[in-house]
């Protein structure tokens, strides 16, 4: 890679802060063919995301990008940095007739993302490898593997946080049920050992890999005696497994855990038992080996490479640009970690998200280089001393929480919210759900268990119950999760396709596929009840957490009924979550009563609900959902509330003519009074308005509803809020079903 003449002259040697990039597609393509680091990335985006811009007749579409260059402010932890950013130039219609074409293409083509490239003074780079050191392959037997050994040695000897985490995990002395014994001679058969009957001498490695569509070697009841007796012939192992074993041996480990060979598959599988231990398997491994670039078991971990293409490119500045002094600089793509690692085939798999978060350290074998991750350092062969601060936004938070998850007993002391997102437990869970749900699962029935490893550690650390992706405290606030992109035609939990179907209630985000946005950070404070707002405009709160024990005496094994009540000026939503240990259930018991639940023997197992029906009391309304072409969003129109702006987030694509989709029921789950225009200095008096969230529903049967989406509103005046507190068709309800103040009692399925 290099910098083309155009980019060197027009960007790096210019004193302009910004300007336009290539004027035509052919110019961009030509620079790409000359291996320009900037133009190669931009050309890839145009080709994959905006292919219509390749049409040379569409001259009005070019230039497609504008660039700007700036110097980043130095901090205690960062050094001199210059950043070049490329941004898309929105298409402009040539005339009135072209307006529809531009709108149509905007809908069907994805926008070109911003691309950032960092320039670091060569003298500030801690260590830059040369091509000879990197070698022509990621196979440590060919390249020497010196960098791998250096990372592990440094982690063992100097990373205090990592050492502390290993001590915390090591104290449990956990060993997986089965391991592969790889201490045998090279090429000899590999045995599966039962660790209860065979002594394990030394640590074990673990493997993250894609199963893919090709039939995979598996441990089954039919081959169990062979695999645990004479073993599996070396040549019978798929390439991924052979090369993972070679890596484990290289780092001095005598055992390795591979899911398909250490969990009995097929008929009479013990997957259900072993899945609950997955968090232990990865947390206690010496090192996790991740084969990130192979979509199946046949591609292997190792790749041949051009070492010159891996090393950060060198640019000799001539001093014409005031930001770039006359000295050598190194240029690195800002999305290196994301593009080369997190967007790889492996990390698009849902199961692997928790593997990545729970493993104490990881060797990622990617397309052109090896990456390293531990709680103290994120690095790659191109940047072996670690990612520079400006490039650490993706790896940094995960590294931080990887360390925290190694010590779950300390999670109860972690701030729920803080000045830095890295330190906020609530933000971590919200981000974790978003990242996890953006990944794919082969089977929809794995939706909750594939996230259970992380949730289990949070549950134990926070001492509150969890089930189906939601937490017991302030449950009503968490029910209003949103589907980021409404693209599905049917709800996965109602699908008849065996790979999509799952038995999960509609109120859980796990009933859906696609990226999920939680609207509420994880909040552990007791649920609060907003009493009628006094004349002075303030809002008084009082706790309604029904539990006779003090917080300091609570244990993860307590029996309790938690009542969540959200009451606002005569509107009450009440949810009761009764749980005992991990035998969690929903209950409709009256407040103050205890209905003990038998505890499960194994807290490592995912909770099972006795009933998945949520009892709720609140004002159930009905409105008309329509698409607002001007605002490009779904809106809810309600009779006598024409001025209210209530945004809708349907779970699946609304069907035209479908009564449930066009005229959904809804219930407000939580609301609060806030100040409108708090920063408006011209307001003589502070104006208070309502904002809140809720869900869309369809009626399943009498008194029972299923979720179909979410709603949110803001800037709602007091009179509108009062009109919103009306139950639809309340006249037809029985006295024991409806209360004028609290609304109707119903079940959410």
TrEMBL record:
Start and end residues of each Heterokaryon incompatibility domain: 204-355
Source organism superkingdom: Eukaryota
Identification of the protein by name: HET-domain-containing protein
Record region (Disordered): 579-617
């Amino acid at each position: 890679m290099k910098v083309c003449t155009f980019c060197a002259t027009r960007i790096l040697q210019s004193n302009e802060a910004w300007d336009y990039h290539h004027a035509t597609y052919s110019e961009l393509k030509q620079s790409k063919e000359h291996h320009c680091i900037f133009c190669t990335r931009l050309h890839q985006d145009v080709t994959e995301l905006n292919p219509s811009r390749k049409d040379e007749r569409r001259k009005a579409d070019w230039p497609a990008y504008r660039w700007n260059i700036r110097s980043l402010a130095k901090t205690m932890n960062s050094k001199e940095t210059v950043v070049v950013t490329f941004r898309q130039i929105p298409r402009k219609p040539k005339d009135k007739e072209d307006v529809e074409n531009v709108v149509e293409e905007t809908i069907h083509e994805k926008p070109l993302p911003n691309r950032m490239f960092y320039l670091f003074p060569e003298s500030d780079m801690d260590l830059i490898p040369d091509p000879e050191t990197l070698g022509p392959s990621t196979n440590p037997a060919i390249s020497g593997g010196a960098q791998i050994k250096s990372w592990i040695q440094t982690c063992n000897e100097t990373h205090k946080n990592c050492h502390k985490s290993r001590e915390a995990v090591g104290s449990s002395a956990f060993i997986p049920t089965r391991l592969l014994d790889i201490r045998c001679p090279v090429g000899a058969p590999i045995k599966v050992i039962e660790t209860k009957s065979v002594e394990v001498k030394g640590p074990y490695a673990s493997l993250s890999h894609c199963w893919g569509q090709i039939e995979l070697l598996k441990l089954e009841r039919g081959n169990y005696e062979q695999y645990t007796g004479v073993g599996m012939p070396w040549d019978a192992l798929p390439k991924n497994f052979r090369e993972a074993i070679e890596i484990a041996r290289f780092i001095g480990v005598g055992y390795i855990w591979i899911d398909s060979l250490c969990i009995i598959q097929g008929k009479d599988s013990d997957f259900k038992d072993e899945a609950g231990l997955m968090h232990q398997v990865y947390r206690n491994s010496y090192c996790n080996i991740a084969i990130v670039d192979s979509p199946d078991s046949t591609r292997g971990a190792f790749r041949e490479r051009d070492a010159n293409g891996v090393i950060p490119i060198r640019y000799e500045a001539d001093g014409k640009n005031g930001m770039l002094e006359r000295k050598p600089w190194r240029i690195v793509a800002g999305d290196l970690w994301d593009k080369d690692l997190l967007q790889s085939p492996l990390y698009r798999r849902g199961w692997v998200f928790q593997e990545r978060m729970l493993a104490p350290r990881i060797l990622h074998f990617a397309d052109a280089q090896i990456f390293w991750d531990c709680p103290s350092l994120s690095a790659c062969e191109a940047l072996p001393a670690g990612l520079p601060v400006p490039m650490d936004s993706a790896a940094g938070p995960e590294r931080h929480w990887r360390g925290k998850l190694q010590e779950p007993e300390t999670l109860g002391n972690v701030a729920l919210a803080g000045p830095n997102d890295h330190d906020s437990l609530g933000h971590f869970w919200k981000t974790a759900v978003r990242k996890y749900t953006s990944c794919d699962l082969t089977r929809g029935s794995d939706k909750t268990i594939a996230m259970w490893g992380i949730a289990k550690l949070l549950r134990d650390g926070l001492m509150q119950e969890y089930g189906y992706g939601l937490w017991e405290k302030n449950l009503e606030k968490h029910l209003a999760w949103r589907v980021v992109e409404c693209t599905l035609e049917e709800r996965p939990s109602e699908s008849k396709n065996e790979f999509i179907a799952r038995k999960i209630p509609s109120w859980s985000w796990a009933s859906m596929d696609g990226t999920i946005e939680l609207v509420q950070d994880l909040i552990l404070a007791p649920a609060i009840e907003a009493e009628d707002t006094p004349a002075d405009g303030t809002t008084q709160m009082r706790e309604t957490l029904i539990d006779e024990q003090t917080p300091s005496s609570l244990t993860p094994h307590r029996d309790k009924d938690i009542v969540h009540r959200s009451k606002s000026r005569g509107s009450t939503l009440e949810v009761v979550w009764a749980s005992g240990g991990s035998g969690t259930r929903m209950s409709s018991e009256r407040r103050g009563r205890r209905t003990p639940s038998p505890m499960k023997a194994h807290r490592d197992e995912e909770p099972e609900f006795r009933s998945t029906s949520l009892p709720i009391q609140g004002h159930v309304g009905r409105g008309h959902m329509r698409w607002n072409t001007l605002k490009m969003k779904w809106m809810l129109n309600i009779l006598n509330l024409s001025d209210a702006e209530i945004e809708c987030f349907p779970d699946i694509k609304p069907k035209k003519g479908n009564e449930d989709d066009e005229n959904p029921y809804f219930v407000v789950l939580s609301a609060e009074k806030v100040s409108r225009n708090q920063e408006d200095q011209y307001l003589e008096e502070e104006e208070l308005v309502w904002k809140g969230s809720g869900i869309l529903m369809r009626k399943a049967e009498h008194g029972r509803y299923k979720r179909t989406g979410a709603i949110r509103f803001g800037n709602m005046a007091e009179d509108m809020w009062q009109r919103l507190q009306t139950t639809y068709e309340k006249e037809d309800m029985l006295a024991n079903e409806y209360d004028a103040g609290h609304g109707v009692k119903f079940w959410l399925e």
